[in-house]
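User:
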Amino acid sequence: MIKRSNPKFRVPNYGAPNRKRVRDRWRHQRGIDNKRRVKKLNRGPLPKIGYKNSDAVRYSRPDGSFELLVHNKAELISVLDMPGYVARFAHGLSVRKRADLKKLADDNKINVLNA
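Assistant: Predicted structure:
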């Protein structure tokens, strides 16, 4: 299974020539006269639960694999038992522990994203 792509959810005035300051992001519309809030057809899509992907592919990376956050050797070795997973070292690892885990990953041919 692959992830479905979703439309871009933008604020209503995004792209208007006199609205250069409007960033490409989503904010829920709260004005009483806002056409986007009233769900006018030509105002673009709104985020809703129907755009959710299936559980099998949620949180997967673009290449289809999943990542596991690794803090110690036991967690790194557990990646071997889970096919389709890659490791990502935690932010708080020291330089020495990171070097030890990198050596262990290279010996066991474990793919590490931020080694």
